[in-house]
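[step 3/7] inverse_fold.run input=structure_tokens len=92
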């Protein structure tokens, strides 16, 4: 049974609790009051919330990588300009 509740995918807090309403369970964030998918079983509600949290973290990770690549590319462009300058100067 999955009992560990992952951090809130929206605000990152770990202060989440399980709530229930009309025979369904769902995880609710105590900071931003986001709620996870409503499920008949508490384990499934936690499992689906955790999945939401994981996929959010993965997309954040990809965004960080993309930004890193952009920085590297601009450094590469700068380096290329410098090399061209050096080459142009050495011909004189
Ligand atoms: Zn939250």
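[step 3/7] decode complete -> sequence:
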């Amino acid at each position: 049974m999955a009992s560990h509740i992952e951090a809130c995918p929206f605000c990152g807090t770990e202060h989440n609790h399980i709530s229930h309403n009309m025979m369904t369970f769902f995880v609710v964030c105590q900071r931003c009051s986001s709620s996870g998918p409503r499920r008949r079983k508490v384990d499934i509600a936690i499992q689906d919330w955790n999945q939401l949290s994981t996929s959010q973290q993965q997309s954040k990770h990809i965004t960080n990588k993309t930004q890193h690549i952009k920085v590297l590319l601009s450094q590469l462009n700068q380096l290329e300009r410098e090399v061209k300058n050096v080459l142009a100067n050495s011909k004189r």
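[step 4/7] annotate
Residues 8, 10-11, 13, 29, 31-32, 34 surround zinc ion (CB under 6 Å).
The two ends are 75 Å apart (CA to CA).
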